[in-house]
Design brief:
The chain is an all-alpha fold and 171 residues long. The chain contains nine helices and no strands. The N and C termini lie close together (11 Å).
């Protein structure tokens, strides 16, 4: 198996794991964002990505992180969401970031709609026995009521075949 492709697989797998973690606990471990940010460099080197493009990808990640922290400080976004979006931006790159962001926004809108409807629906008491289901369907903290890493993972999987980075992963 090609080393670049093997390293590339870290990206969608960690994004899916982050979505599952956020869904189950409303938390995205910092380690997931750190692994994504750190794993991009060996992937990029194995795939023959130039240093200028690598630098631009990390610069984009830093810019998104700063913006994300501003949104976190304003109470608009979660801190884990900001870090995960920044780490994923490194992989997606500047040329495809708006496409990825659009897919994340659409997936997030669908997720919010599903959660709004589900939170209004009556559920059998047995369904709410699991802590993660109860937190998801009956959140007590309005600031942490949408596991947005689910939307980031879904948005990524939606547009992944169209991303320029796929050309590097296939090399």
């Amino acid at each position: 198996m090609d080393l670049a492709f093997l390293l590339f697989s870290i990206f969608p797998l960690v994004m899916i794991a982050a979505g599952i973690s956020d869904l189950a606990s409303f938390r995205i471990p910092n380690l997931m964002s750190i692994v994504l940010a750190a794993a991009f460099l060996p992937f990029a080197l194995a795939a023959g990505v130039g240093w200028a493009e690598i630098g631009m990808s990390y610069a984009l990640g830093v810019g998104i992180l700063v913006l994300g922290f501003a949104l976190f400080a304003a109470g608009i976004a979660g801190g884990g969401d900001a870090k995960l979006l920044a780490a994923s931006a490194i992989w997606v790159g500047a040329s495809d970031f708006l496409l990825y962001l659009l897919a994340v926004a659409l997936a997030g809108g669908a997720l919010c709609l599903v959660l709004l409807l589900a939170r209004k629906a009556p559920f059998p008491a047995g369904w709410l026995k699991a802590d993660w289901v109860r937190r998801l369907l009956r959140p007590d903290d309005g600031a942490r009521d949408v596991p947005y890493a689910v939307a980031m993972a879904a948005g990524l999987l939606w547009v992944l075949p169209q991303l320029d980075i796929m050309h590097h992963a296939a090399v």
